[in-house]
Design brief:
Elements: E1 6-7, E2 10-11, H1 15-23, H2 27-30, E3 42-44, E4 47-49, E5 57-60, E6 66-70, E7 75-79, H3 92-108
Length: 110
């Protein structure tokens, strides 16, 4: 996903599909869903799109597992988890800022 669907010089996922996912949906239409930990976000094709300055998007599991793609930082985080509570509301206030901090550190060379 981070490499526009390319792996080892081969197009695995059509680049148009990756671009469509990364573009996301309309955040205004998503807002009524009430995901307070994802302000300005949207959901498209099984991916949660942040619409943040890095263009990050993620696949999220109900018990905290996820894949976080930050194109600007050229970073992917795969998180294996088994949080005891279903839903990400308990994890998001810690994990989402941590992901952004990691991205910023990578971009700063730190």
């Amino acid at each position: 996903m981070r490499n526009h669907g390319r792996f080892n010089g081969r197009q695995i996922v059509p680049s148009q599909v990756v671009e469509d996912i990364a573009r996301g949906g309309d955040p205004e239409k998503f807002k009524p869903a009430g995901y307070t930990t994802l302000p300005g976000a949207s959901y498209r094709n099984q991916w949660w799109v942040t619409h943040n300055a890095h263009g990050a998007y993620m696949a999220r599991g109900v018990y905290g597992q996820g894949i976080y793609v930050d194109p600007r930082a050229e970073m992917v985080i795969a998180r294996y988890a088994s949080h005891p509570m279903a839903g990400n509301a308990a994890n998001d206030p810690v994990t989402l800022p941590a992901y952004m901090a990691l991205a910023k550190a990578l971009m700063a060379g730190g």
